[in-house]
Amino acid sequence: MTKIPLGKVAFTDAGSYNAGKTYKRFDFVDTEDSSYLSLQDNNKGHAITETAWWKCLARGTKATEAAKKANDAAALANEKAMAADTAAGRVNAAITQANTAATNAQQQASAAGEAAAEATESVAEMNAALARLKELEQTITAKDRKQPTGMELEFPKKITKGNKDILRVIATLSPAGTGNNVLFLGDDKAVSVAPDGFLTVNSVGISKIHVIPTENTSIYRTIDIEVVPQSVRLCTKSTLRLTANGKFRFNYNNFSTNKTFKLWHYQQMKKTK
Fold first, then answer.
1. pLDDT tens for each residue of 144-155
2. For position 206, which CATH number holds?
3. Of 1, 40, 61, 154, which one has the greatest count of Cβ atoms within 10 A?
4. What are the phi and psi torsion angles at 185 (to 5°)?
5. Domain that residue 32 falls in
């Protein structure tokens, strides 16, 4: 049988590409993402991009880029998933905190409602007690207070104009134990009367003053007080009384015959000295 040498007819796996290695025809090598077939013997130092020496059998560049993009997307997705987990954790923590705050608020609202109910009850009890006290006061007042049936007045019937003494209308109600509430109403002509009965001289003339007990107005009285001009003091009917400096002496008299009023007036004059 005659043998005819055909040479190398099958591809030989030469492993990963190495620029310092010599490759034979039909040796194929692998790069990072592709496979290349040596087209000639003594193939050394030729880059796989030289098409006279190398034939690309399988190009995986796009697949590598796609895989890289897929890996990048997966990494980004993982990062976002971690961020989402963190956010979810924060949300859960916020929800827990909000639930705690809501529980506390409900407890405080319940306590406030109880306090308000107690306060309302206390106010109601206080109002009831006040109403009872008022009713009791009215009962006691109606039972024990005596109505005045008489009134005595002490006042100066005549006042010399220019008199600087303290002057007053004094009202005493009877029987004993009645109130001393008296209302003074004057015409403010010759004299003016204050709510407490004190008098102020205005001018020469006569004033009418109504003295009204507030608890029994039927026993009111109306009095007249006359203001007279100043008069010169006399030693005799025809002789004037002068001061040491030779000046006139004037009369400043309060014409009242009531002994109680004279005593009160004397005491008031002592207080002012």
1. 667 899 999 999
2. 2.60.40.1080
3. 154
4. -125, 120
5. 12-59
